[in-house]
Amino acid sequence: MTPLxxxxxxxxxxxxxxxxxxxxxxxxxxxxxxxxxxxxxxxxDAYQQFRQDLARSIILGLExxxxxxxxxxxxxxxxxTGAAVLALIVLIRVMLSLMLQFxxxxxxxxxxxxxKS
Length: 117
Prior knowledge:
With 117 residues, the protein is mainly α. It has helices at 3-40, 43-75, 80-105. The protein has one domain.
């Protein structure tokens, strides 16, 4: 491999590591906030907010993970098999992101925002 490909491969892994770190830190912060909310909110409201906070950190982490996979596949693993694996990984992660987005907002991303009464 060329030094530039090695550099892009490392960059892809670094971006994926940032994704994992964002999920872990997001979980830790969500858990801390959940404990704080338990003291001043109903337990159901605190739990729902915890789920939404956690889902947001997972969505952010998935975005970084997808970016890292794309970088490594396009620059390092330039094979048809690598592209097929990337397509499957991206499809799974996009579906997860859509489901989490629905969980957070109660609507699909392409739907209009509901007005609060």
